[in-house]
Amino acid sequence: MVQSEKICIKLPNGKEIVLTGSVSPDGILQEHFPDKKNTCIAAVLNEKPIDLSREISESGDLRFMDIQQPEALDIFWHSSSHVMAQAVKNLYPDAQLGIGPSISRGFYYDFKLDTPITPDDLPRIEAAMQKIIDENQVFERQVLNRSDSIDVFKSRNEPFKVELIQEIEDEQVTVYQNNGFMDLCRGPHVPSTKFIRYFKLTSVAGSYWHGDERNAVMQRIYGISFPDKKQLKNHLLQIEEAKKRDHRKIGKELDLFSFHQEGPGFPFWHAHGMILYNNVQRYLQKTLEIHGYQEIKTPLILNEALWHQSGHWDNYKENMYFTSIDEQPFAVKPMNCPGGLLVFRNNLHSYKDFPIKMSEMGLVHRHEKSGVLHGLFRVRMFTQDDAHVFCTPEQIETEVIQIIDLIDEVYSTFGFNDYEVELSTKPLKSIGSDEMWQRAEAALENALIKKQMKYQLNPGDGAFYGPKIDYHIRDSLDRLWQCGTIQLDFSMPERFSLEYVGPDNSKHRPVMIHRAILGSVERFIGILIEHYAGDFPLWLAPVQCAVLPISEKHESFASTVLELLRSQGIRCKVDNRNEKIGFKIRDAETHRINYMCIIGDREVEEQSVSLRQRKKGNLGTFDTEALIKRFMDELDRRANH
RNA sequence: GCUGGCGUAGCUCAAUUGGCAGAGCAGCUGAUUUGUAAUCAGCAGGUUGUAGGUUCAAUUCCUAUCGCCAGCUCCA
Fold first, then answer.
1. Of A34, A185, A514, A626, which is least packed with CB atoms within 10 Å of its CB?
2. Structure pTM?
3. List A200, A380, A388, A439, catalytic entry
């Protein structure tokens, strides 16, 4: 490239240099920061990432991307996917390349290939990758014009790449090449393959070209790589930990719930699971009572006409189940609001009664495609901790603030102190006047601002009937789960002609706020199981205490202790099996029982127990009074540990 | 829904190229009477998801079906 003007570059250390001739970031790195030569993988010129080997053709700020910087991982993973694709092409010359991006955690590449790739093939591909890495092949960038590049990829039998180029509007495209492997790619890449130090291919799966099931079926290989061995190890450990915490696995181990062929997507709650379910529900009901809610319950099956009126027929029919009663069409409710509206409309309401906060633990059924069902996280039947707040437009902001506080209170009870909030505004398809939307969005936004909440704006992502605030809670493994939601609704009051009598003695239309805190009780319990890894806090635990007599002769006092604890509402059991104490302790520990009361000669003598806490070990001797006090105190605080 | 994988005892998993379905844990019985994460021995446990088919013979091969698991644009 001919340089018409001199190029001035400002370096990260503040130094300014003038380039003469053809200079790449590589050269500058060698000259000015020789110690970083081995750890830099790319440069950033005027906030645009470029290859280290790329000739600098414009003036501006230049900095270097160290391999340890998070932003470098993106490039790192992208290069890793190239190496993987190259390895696959070496092993399967017939494979046609799809796309191979870096993703939030790792990378993948899609291939069209007639021979199926199974997990057993991954070590072979990994070995082929290692060979490429050991050869330290240099990634070479090349600029081609469109038609040439199309010819190139046609001749290489890469129809998908040709299709991609045809979708590109630019006259020039870039390709990267190393040792005969070529890929259409925007770049940048790490300088050479040796930078991909530690990697692992994690899974194979099917996918579709452009994600559309009408298109060609592709095989996708997922992988992860890191510059540091420890990072890779930690990542793999985290995957292991997540597997250990899988609520489906723990649910089976602790006998919490089950699923059956006879009811796909419909959870069966077992006795232990019901304790979780009931405790979560009771806690919530009590809390709502304190916050001025009144609880209602509406029928599971309602006449289809209601669903026409509510708009669900038009917008939600695909997800609903239908039946008939006395030859009349009925539907199983997928949401609770229409039923709640009938309750509201059953009485005449004065503005003096507002806000009216009606809550419902509503069992809803929603048809989900069979392929998306997933334990308690994605089911076809669940209980929503639903509520509808009816108020005047002026009351919206205050009510939303109260809900924000309530949600925070509930989440922190379960140890979720970290959550993310999104505000979604008017979508293209919507009902209601612009003025109404503006007022509603402002009310939600003001509430968030007043509470000094950080939130992400999702323009155009609101429901068709109103804007909303969504909550995502972060669990102990740093994963996000959508749970709570606060939605303003102008549509339902309209459709159902809701009214209240105002101070002017005439009728007005109320505003309705839908809100859920847990979202789905079932899903929330799934999240709790994984969050606590099955080690539930005392107030939730299915079995809180195991009474363990050392031998047969201690059974009598053990029963006395059991009865005493039971009389105080402690969920406990006695283990009278003919086993050694070590066995009984192990059994109680593996069943995640919070406390063990060990009873031998000494304890019978002193009328006390030797208390042991799950995962913590021996706590020493407690007389029965101190024991109960300890339990009650922990229960009162709903202590999280 | 689509693609691929899987379905064996209550649970976790075995079973050469098709050749008598097996182990550990849990359960039951007996011995042992135990002091802070597994005492020993014995017994029992199955229409191999379901329905067809191929075969002298099917857990194994084929077809259908049900369910489970993973994935199904985070775009060169």
1. A34
2. 0.87
3. A388
